[in-house]
Amino acid sequence: MQKLFIIFIFSLLPLALFGKVEVTYLSIEGVGSSRADAIKDGLIEAVKQTSGVKIESKKGYLKAIKEAGSSTNGDSKHSALITEHTQKLIREATSGFIRNYSITSAEKIDNEWHVGLKIEFKQYKAPGLNPSKRRKIAIIPFEFKNSYVVLSNNVSGKEISRRFTQALITKITQARKFTVLDRENSKYYKSEKSFILSGDTNKQELLKLGKRLGADYLLIGQINNFSIENIAEHNNIGLPQAPNLTCNATISYRIIMMATQQIKWSQTISKSFTIAQNTTEAIVANASQNISSTILNNILANIYPPKVIMVTPSSIIVNEGGDNMENGEVFKAYKTGKRLTDPYTHEFLGYEEIKAGEIIITKVNPKVSYARALNGHISKGMILRRKKSEIIENQGEAKTDVTIKPNGGVVLPFD
Prior knowledge:
Structural class: alpha+beta
Distance between the termini: 55 Å
Order of helices and strands: HEHHHEEEEEHEHEEEHEEEEEEEE
CATH topology of the largest domain: Double Stranded RNA Binding Domain
Number of domains: 3
C-alpha cells in the first residue's frame, strides 16, 4: 500500500519537474575532400552542436560513413538497402544521438565537397523553466584581504568571502529573476560526467552532457572592509549603555557583460549596522545576510523592482517572496507615466513614476508575498519601492530604467 501511495504522489507532480528526451531536426553543411568526408564532417559537427560529445573513431562509424559516401549511384533498391543499413550503423556509432539523416544537397566546389544534411536527433530537455527565459548570471567569489577583525580576533578573509558569496547566491537565486550559474563546484559536475561516460548508465544519459550554460553577466566584487566589534554607547544623559555588536563593511561590486566586458552596473556600499549577540560563526553569517540583501535590493530596484501582480478584495499579491521580503515592510506603490529619454544620448531612462499609495507586507511565501493597502489606490502592475531605503550612499527615490511591456515583460537597461 505504501508503494502505491508513493507512486500516486509522483503521478501528481507536474511534468515540468522531470527531464525528457525529444526528437528534433538540424540542417547543417559538411565540407570535405570527398563526399564521404563531407558527410562525416557534417555528422560530427551535428553531434558537437547538439550534445557537446566527441564521437570517437569507431570501426562501425567509419564503415557507415564509407557506405554513405559510396551510395551516390546505383539502382534505387540497392541504394535504399544501403541507406537503411547506414542509418543503423550511424545510430550505433553515435550512441543514438543521431537517429536518421538525409542528404539535401551535394556539390563539388574547387575540389571540395559541400554536402547539405538534414539530421534527426535526440535532445535532452532539462526539467523546469527554460533557463533562456531569464538572464544568466555567474556570481564569482568576491576578492578579499588576508583577514578581517571579528570581536578582536583575526578571521580568514577567504572564509568571510565564502560565506558572503554563498549568501549572495542564495538571495539572487530566491529572487527568481536570473538564471544563477554555479562556478564553484565544477569537481562535482566532472565526477558525475565521468560516471555518465563510464558505460554504467543508459545511453540516453549521454544526452545530458554538453548542456552547460554560459553566463550573460558576471557579478564580481571586493570586500574592502569588514569588521565586527562591541561598541559602547551612552544615553542622552551621558551614562554608558550595554555595548552593541556592530558591523562596519565596505563592499564594491560590478556587473559585467560577459560578451563585451562592458561594465553595466557598479556600486560601492558602506554599511554600519547592529547584530544580535551570538557565536562568531552565526555573527558572520548574519552580517553576510544583511549585506547581501542590500546588494540584491539595489540590483533589483534598478532592474526588476517588485510589482503588484494581483489585487483581490482581501489582499494585494506581490511577485517576490522568500528571504527578499519581510513581514511588516512598507512599500510605496507607483503607477507608470510618460516615457523618459535622455536629451543628450537619447537613451531610454524608464518611465515617470507617479505615487499611488503605500502597502505593508503581511505574509511572505517562498515565491510571492501578500500585503494590504495603508493608503491610496493600489492596482495590478504597479511598481513597488521600499519606503526606508537600505542604501547608505544613495538618498531619495530610486528611479527605474526598465521598459515595461504591455504583456508584463521588461526590457533591461543592460540591453
